[in-house]
């Protein structure tokens, strides 16, 4: 069907894809009732031709559908007898991306078949190419594809419940359409339509967002929000939501921003901006993950919750009373009635020491609050013994240790010849780890957890150059090769966060005596309680004696990396104008975008931007070509991958062959 819509195999010569030609083809296949329905629906004479667009912007439906987002579903399950009439006004309410959670929930509750997401997207008015991009990005994950499809619809097209109901009907889900109309009709009562109202969350500036998630809380019983993937939990007690009501909780996990904390304190958690569609009727229990290792009851005194209520940067955090912390638990908890931006901070130990007060870990049970202790110098604490004698206890307790996370990842600079190793460091927090993994999601890595030996710690990588086998070389990019603890701790003040790292280049030179495989241990110094004693680097040398067809080579044999980079850049620049001219055809542009993305020549962001039909074609072409140029400049061997991708499309075969000849005979 997609090949027919593109006009392949002489379809264009026969008048192009049209509703009329589709009806004729169905008649020939004996599907007369379907052909008749098409003609009746589009008022077609049997000879009439209504050509479809090459960009598939006119899906097989008489109405141009636009994306819709469903309102949050009421908690109570109402019987069909309770739903007596269809509410036209409610069906015409414009939906936004904030309604996505509710729409997904309604489709799930009505047993919509997620495998039909692609057809649903077409009936909602999304282009074929945008849907193919989603399919490529999330292979074999129909649920995620459905969410992305609905999100695209909600952000790109004016969405309503009515259009969603029509679209699901067109894909054969009539019972789902009836359910949608019934639910939306009943939800027209104000108390049944909780939606996230515009608040400071919509206006957050000067922050770096790791992820956003929404949860529906139905009345009637105690419920929990567990988003431990990003380090936060909320327990909502019975009675906080009316039995007939539903509240939507939206959480934004922030891993950097223009934050200001009380003097001599530092951030030891992610920052969470929390918003409700309507207030809870009772206080709830908020739990946030921190990275402090609490080994004694006195360590609890160093931690406290903080909140910022201002809506514009810088966000000034103040201490909140009432937090509770316990030995061995990496989550702190607090009872709150109002939501804004929350986090956990600790005393940094850079000026004064707090009182050493053993005993209850509950913040409100302590003799002194942390905020007041930060302003006082250290002096002895007097305690009464069982014999009535006053003894002196040293208040300068050792600060509790913090847990940290390291990720070792490799980037191939020259296949089988040169590798760049990155050792990226952060605090051991789920939100930061997930952010790092998503940033480098195509990279295999080794994960390391550890603590520093000293309060003012320094982790250093030690290289035993004597163990480096013949033909291999190790080149650290800085000396000493390490990172200070204080540099890792400062992550919260940066947006986007700039995680400190160590860079090391490994190179192999082919030769008769060169060892084929490198197995090289790297020792980490200055740390303790690590899950990894040594990082063992294992790399394999490639074969450089023969150059395959189309690879970067000269008539005299292998060429240097600098020559590779220059030649690849030269070939690409020489063909920039010709490529731009061919890409100007929207069908050509869309085809190569998906091919480039599949071969990892462009990033997710570039692919999305270049597929945006709202941008001028020339702008999209320029963005694509400059993104590819940046990729080839960094990895010149990918010029061969680029040529392979171009050869897959008939319109680019000639220029691809020309580029191949330029590489073989520069």
From TrEMBL:
Coiled coil: none annotated. Residues 116-184 form the Death domain. GO terms for biological process: signal transduction. Gene3D superfamilies: 2.60.220.30, Death Domain, Fas. This is Death domain-containing protein. The gene is 109587263.
